[in-house]
Amino acid sequence: QLVESGGGLVQPGGSLRLSCAASGFSLSRYAGDWYRQAPGKEREAVATIYYGESTWYAGTVKGRFTVSRDNAKNELYLQMNSLKLEDAGAYFCKVRLGVRDYWGQGTQVTVSS
After folding, report:
1. What percentage of the chain exceeds 70 in pLDDT?
2. Helix, strand, coil distribution of the chain in percent, nearest 5
3. What is the sign of the dihedral through the CA atoms of 102, 88, 10 and 14?
4. I need a surface site. Which of 33, 64, 68, 113 has the fewest CB within 10 A?
5. Residue pair 6/59 in contact by the 8 Å Cβ criterion
């Protein structure tokens, strides 16, 4: 099970830190992904942290977002800085276990002045 938290309302230029708490498996053994979905748009990948701790970012967030994890807490994080209006949407964490993808329920990020 994956449970996201940390979403909310923030002004442009502000920061938020999203968390994704995993249970039932050890997050440290798998890659963890963050996706987002804006209203009327397809879900898109935002960031990935791989098993070896290397990372990948979408071009639209690179340099502003940082993905990380705390293996002791079994949690995945997405630090979002310099937020823009276009960063708004529902954010989801995802982990692939074998051939199956597990998704959290999402947390809403609203960017508005």
Report:
1. 100
2. 5, 50, 40
3. positive
4. 113
5. no
* The predicted structure's pLDDT at residue 10: 97
| Burial of residue 37, with CB atoms counted within 10 A of its CB: 0-12 exposed, 13-18 middle, 19 or more buried | middle
Looking at residue 27, the DSSP 8-state letter turns out to be: G
Q: Which residue has the tokens 């879900």?
A: 43
Q: Cβ(109)–Cβ(61) under 8 Å?
A: no
Q: Which two tokens stand for residue 75?
A: 């949690």
Task: List Cα–Cα distances, 55 to 23, 31, 66, 70, 112, in angstroms.
Answer: 22, 9, 9, 15, 28
Q: How many residues does the chain have?
A: 113
Q: Which pLDDT score is estimated for 110?
A: 97
One-letter amino acid for residue 57 of the chain: Y
